[in-house]
Amino acid sequence: MALFYGIVLQLLLLYACTLCNCALVAPPPLPGRGTAAELQVGFYSRTCPRAEDIVRTQVQKRFLLDPSITPALLRMLFHDSFVRGTDASILLNSKPGHEAEKEALPNLTIRGFDLIDEAKDAVEAACPGVVSCADILVLAVRDSVALAGGPKYAVPTGRLDGKVSIKEEALSLPSPAFPVEQSQESFRQKGLDLEDMVALLGAHTVGVALCGFFNDRLFNFRGTGMADPTMNPQLVTRLSTICPNPFFTESNADPPIDLDQSTPALFDTAYYTQILAGNGILQIDQAITADPTTLGFVNSFTSASTFFPAFVKSIIKMGNVDVITADTTHGEIRLKCNVSNSRAAARAPVPATKPGPAPGTKRGPAPGTKPGPATKPGPGPATKPGPGPATKPGPVTAPVPGTKPGSAAPKPAAPVTGRPAPVTKPSPAGQGKPSPVGHVSKPPARAKPTPVSKRPATAKPPAGSKPRKPPPRQVAPVTMPAPRGRSPVPKPPFGPPPVTPAAPGHGRKPPVGHVSRPSPPQAGHVGASQL
């Protein structure tokens, strides 16, 4: 809805300017501009000999899927050349705090940016940093015209891409509602004469226009409340059923209408034949048949032998408007068509550095991970089965993770986590291999109950040692031994249960249903219960 009313507002403003005979003010000369003489056909024959073939291939692929890409590219080149010259400034995206030409109202319906980007990427893969986006746009237009049935021609190249794109400058594009004199002045400021203007309007033979650009001709021409009398009445009737009347409806429908009502997909001379019959869609299309200064060109361009050479001459001239050729202060070869090189460099991601330990830290497993090879029991002097001081059953505490094999065992009073040091479980059959010690944050697998008859003798605590107080928080409660004839009822292990004081020498629950004397302490994770 906003776009529809925006277009209508623009047309009303342009119409008011037409009634007031507003004069177009010539813009100041642009800095860093070269001349057409500095361009040449085959400019990339040595630096990138396949450049034109690569662009042609990309255009052919798109044309087979969407033949309307031809008028889209023609319109893009026209809007680019008439604003700051043919420097691909229309391709640049906006940046924070600055809107580019793309955001201007006349350019909101421009299509084909993705095709130019695809062609640029393909050329960059073959010749990085050689071919400009401005040249790719000119080449793409040339190839699309030929694919639509138009003339084939050679186009000079050697342009640089501009670095500036300003939204407000695109508002000076000539409007389709301009009269002939005002349109002629717009073309003259770009170095194009009256014949060039009429020949370039011939591109409307494959173009379309939204209803918002001409519905005043259908419903309220120049404020009369009537249709344009120069338009064919049959065409008025047919288009009135397609285009909504903005003065009597709030519909935001804005369908496209073919500017050539006979062969809209073919680049031919039917456009001139149609406007001579009163079937011009845009006001400027019909106006050039009523003005004596342009009527002669219209009549002559009904022949392809006259129109095609004139169109080739004019489209090349338009592509040479205010080109940048050698001034690298104002021009460059963009690596991406939608962003200048300086901005692309600023947005480039910082190369990722290889992760490693922070300065001053030792390499090793992070907390919460499984112990690495340094703490995993295996064959070696410290874990070799056999009798010895390190494997003798008794009050030997399990090694603390992070200590080297063979080092002295830490004192029981200084465990790493504040938990009681686990007692090593003696191996059966006299084997002195200690049970694996897991990380303190990961409990070991639940062990199966061992019959009382097969339990080893309880290891006596060292002389003079005192029972350690339980830590302030336990994963599971430690219960008192059940009285004879009764079985303890274990509490569910969910949530932080209250801690029950443990008697000296008792650190686990007896098996359910088993009546015996209190169980001796077992090796394993502190707080792990066995049922």
Automatic annotation (TrEMBL):
Heme b binds at residue 204. The record marks 75 as: Transition state stabilizer. Its cofactor is heme b; Ca(2+). Residues 399-415 have a biased composition (Low complexity). Disulfide bonds join 48-127, 133-337, 211-243. Coiled coil: none annotated. It is an enzyme of class 1 (oxidoreductase). Its EC number is 1.11.1.7. GO terms for molecular function: heme binding; lactoperoxidase activity; metal ion binding. Keywords: Calcium, Disulfide bond, Heme, Hydrogen peroxide, Iron, Metal-binding, Oxidoreductase, Peroxidase, Secreted, Signal. Residues 341-531 are annotated as: Disordered. Residues 38-341 form the Plant heme peroxidase family profile domain. Ca(2+) 1 binds at residues 80, 83, 85, 87, 89, 101. InterPro entries: Haem_peroxidase, Haem_peroxidase_sf, Peroxidase_pln, Peroxidases_AS, Peroxidases_heam-ligand_BS, Secretory_peroxidase. Ca(2+) 2 binds at residues 205, 260, 263, 268. Residues 368-398, 489-501 have a biased composition (Pro residues). Belongs to the peroxidase family. Ascorbate peroxidase subfamily. Removal of H(2)O(2), oxidation of toxic reductants, biosynthesis and degradation of lignin, suberization, auxin catabolism, response to environmental stresses such as wounding, pathogen attack and oxidative stress. These functions might be dependent on each isozyme/isoform in each plant tissue. This is peroxidase. It comes from Adiantum capillus-veneris (Maidenhair fern). The lineage of its organism: Eukaryota, Viridiplantae, Streptophyta, Embryophyta, Tracheophyta.
